[in-house]
Every structure is written in C-alpha cells, then in structure tokens.
Amino acid sequence: MTLKDDLNQALAVMTRSRETPLSLDENGWSQLILPMPGRDNLSNQQLIVEVVLSKTAKYFTLLTPLAVLNNQPGAEFLQALLYRQFSADQVDGAAFGLGAGGERDRLVALCHWALPAITPDQFSALFQNFVKAALALIDEVKDMARREPALVLVHSS
Predict the structure, then answer these.
(1) In this structure, are residues 50 and 64 in contact, taking their beta carbons and an 8 Å threshold?
(2) Are 51 and 62 a contacting pair, CB within 8 Å?
(3) CA distance 113 to 3
(4) Of 25, 26, 64, 81, whose CA is between 20 and 30 Å from 32?
(5) In angstroms, how far is CA 156 from the centroid of its own chain?
(6) Which DSSP letter does residue 74 get?
(7) What does the pLDDT look like over 8-60, one tens digit per residue?
(8) Residue 87's pLDDT band (boundaries 50, 70, 90)?
(9) Strand pairing partners for 101?
C-alpha cells in the first residue's frame, strides 16, 4: 500500500459515520470541517483541517489556517515566529508556516508526517494532537495580531 492508500483508509475510518466518507481528491487533498460547539473563539464554532499529500507522495501535512497577511509582516514578527517554534513543547508538536493562499499569503498551523506509512489509529492520534495544538496556536496568534497589523485573523471572534 502507498501512503495515499493509507491516508484514504484512515480518512474513511475517521469519517465512516458520514453518508460519504472522506478521501483524498485527485490532487492528494482533503478537508475536514470539525464542528466545535461552545468554542466561541472559533469562527462559526468550527475548525477546518486540511490533509495534503506531498507532490512526491512520500509525506503529508495537516494544516489549519490561522490568519492571512495584508502586507509584509515586520522582521521582528517573523523572527519571533521562528524562535517560538524551535522547541516542539512550545507549540504542542505543531509548527507555524507561511504560504501562498490565493490573493494573500496565509499563516497556518501545520504538522508534517515523514514516514512512508500510517495506520488509521496512528492517523487518529496524530489528528487529535494536531487539533489540540492548533486550538492553542489560534489563541497565540490572536495575541500576536495585537502587535502585528499585517495579520488578519481567520478566527477573530
């Protein structure tokens, strides 16, 4: 089995209660919209997590958008972002990433999987840990946005 097959199996297991279980599309991408009732700090009380298979199909990434950039952020912000994620304990095993996101770049929380296979149980554990980390990073980015005017929060409530 390939990593893509493993991911499709894991996504199917994770979403088996849905009418149509999820799988990766032809580009190796899928999106999970997680309802989170009572989480008023999230837009629409939901968290969006993307699963992205690398072009080589050797790796995959979990990511969730945190903010978009209206302008180029200041050097101090970028330096602080790099230092903040140096220790995995500081960000609960996740990381920040900046990437092209349409008209504006976006700041995301992300986690890369670099092993050639994953079981549904491993994926579930990784996914749960990532969601926990992403929720903490959302709160952290809100604090950053108070000092960095280039950041426009995804979860601004």
Answers:
(1) yes
(2) yes
(3) 10
(4) 81
(5) 17
(6) P
(7) 999 999 999 888 889 999 999 999 999 998 888 888 999 999 999 999 999 99
(8) confident
(9) 104
